[in-house]
Specification:
- The complex is a heterodimer of chains A (about 280) and B (about 130).
- With about 280 residues, chain A is α/β, with parallel strands linked by helices.
- Helix content of chain A is about 35%, strand content about 30%.
- Chain A has seven helices and 14 strands.
- In chain A, the strands form three sheets. In chain A, strands 8, 9, 10, 11, 12, 13 and 14 form a seven-stranded antiparallel β-sheet that branches. In chain A, strands 1-2-4-6-7 form a five-stranded mixed β-sheet.
- In chain A, α1 packs parallel to α2 and α5 packs across α7.
- The longest helix of chain A is centred in the last third of the chain and has 26 residues.
- In chain B, α2 runs parallel beside α3.
- The two termini of chain B are about 15 Å apart.
- In chain B, strands 2-1-3-4-5 form a five-stranded parallel β-sheet, sandwiched between helices.
- The chains are: A alpha/beta (about 280), B alpha/beta (about 130).
């Protein structure tokens, strides 16, 4: 190959410009190069086929591994400027799920989002819930919070245990889902004492609706921001309460959930947002 | 400001919030506080209360008659149409505020709130309704 693969990451998109001849047995070690591409943290990977005139079957395996690895990590691979003359080849060789042509990078980005262009993982969607949690706990409870880094929880995975959770169903034109605020008993009771001025030794029917009320206020704040300012269509909802010992949230959706942990002087608790 | 002996009716389906509002009102010096768990119970309390209710602080989203529906009922009834009515709610979307104003709310407080904010809003409510009481 007289030209080599060139890669660059811009605005969260990893772009590989492919050389005219793509050959697994060429000058460059394609498997090693693909392994390096897979270290990118970008959610969207693009192969630019604008210069490609030939795609040899010896190059198939590294690209199949690349495509599969990205999918396993909830990332996406598309091709731009894909030559029409190569389309019959990839169809015949069963590679249409590996080399997915799109018109341009914007079309690829749009394919990441559900209809309406609203994605759970847009910071614009999660941030109002984080801001709402800080505002509610600081104002109503007098508790300073430090939000942790949001984490992704895979579908059907369970994580942090809790004894009480407030849960609200999210319903919008673009999606449905749930948001939960989850506490271990000692953290919840300490928080309740700060908020209401009453000390309790265990969670009782008298105290448990505090979890729902906190989530109600957080949701109210986020809903106002998202609907009034960001064009979402979230509907009103009434919280439900879950109480038990060492419970763990498991959502039966195809999509992963976002977990946001919060640290405070009374301990840690977390928000969990799941969308379908 | 309202006389501290004014009977205040606090309406919210969440016990925690009824306790928080009660505590805040006590901190402001109010001594006669009653509560109800939903709009329907709030309506019944308004009708049966002796002495009469002098101030209503109600949540919006409740089963068995929401706060906004109770407000409309109150404003439509000659016996209670001038009762000062404050909506206390987690929602502050512009269309919701507009709906409350149209229904005749005297003040709209967005949760979360501090006792200082409640005091300020009640003082504004008193000034607004002083002419019609």
């Amino acid at each position: 190959m007289s030209e080599k693969f060139l890669s660059a990451e811009t605005d969260g998109v990893f772009v590989v410009t492919c050389p005219p001849l793509i050959d697994g047995k060429g000058e460059q070690d394609l498997e090693a190069i693909v392994k390096m591409w897979m270290t990118s943290t970008a959610d969207l990977h693009i192969l630019d086929f604008g210069k490609v005139t030939s795609l040899k079957s010896t190059a198939y395996r590294p690209f199949v591994v690349y495509s599969q690895t990205l999918k396993q990590n909830e990332k996406h691979l598309f091709c731009i400027n894909f030559p029409e003359k190569l389309l019959p080849q990839i169809r015949q060789d069963g590679l249409t799920s590996v080399f997915v042509p799109v018109k341009n990078i914007e079309e690829a980005k749009a394919k990441l989002k559900p209809a309406g262009g609203k994605s759970l993982f847009d910071v614009e969607f999660v941030n109002p819930f984080i801001a709402g949690t800080k505002k509610v706990l600081e104002t109503q409870v007098g508790l300073k919070l430090v939000p942790g880094k949001p984490m992704i929880k895979k579908a059907n995975e369970t994580t942090f245990p809790f004894e009480i959770a407030g849960v609200i169903s999210l319903s919008a034109k673009e999606f449905t889902g749930t948001i939960s605020i989850c506490f271990r008993q000692p953290v919840f009771l300490a928080l309740y004492e700060k908020m209401v001025g009453e000390k309790h030794e265990t969670i009782t029917p008298e105290t448990q609706d505090a979890a729902g009320e906190l989530l109600n206020m957080i949701f109210g704040h986020a809903k106002t921001v998202l609907n009034d300012q960001k064009g979402y269509t979230l509907e009103k909802a009434i919280p439900t309460i879950m109480v038990g010992k060492d419970m763990r949230m498991q959502t039966k959706t195809k999509n992963p959930s976002v977990i946001v942990p919060f640290e405070s002087e009374v301990g840690q608790f977390h928000l969990e947002i799941s969308v379908e | 400001m309202f006389d501290k002996g004014t009977r205040v009716l606090i309406i919210d389906d969440m016990m925690t919030m009824r306790k928080i509002v009660t505590k805040a009102c006590k901190e402001l010096g109010f001594t006669d506080l009653i509560d109800a768990v939903d709009g329907q119970k709030g309506w019944e309390a308004l009708q049966s209360s002796v002495p009469p209710v002098g101030l209503v602080i109600s949540d919006w989203n409740m089963p068995n008659c929401s706060g906004i529906d109770l407000l409309r009922r109150v404003r439509a009834d000659g016996r209670f149409k001038n009762v000062p009515f404050v909506l206390l709610t987690a929602e502050s979307e512009s269309k919701q505020v507009a709906e409350a104003v149209k229904a005749g709310v005297d003040q709209y407080i967005v949760k979360p709130f501090t006792p200082e904010l409640l005091q300020k809003k009640l003082e504004e409510t008193y000034k607004k309704v002083a002419g019609r009481l």
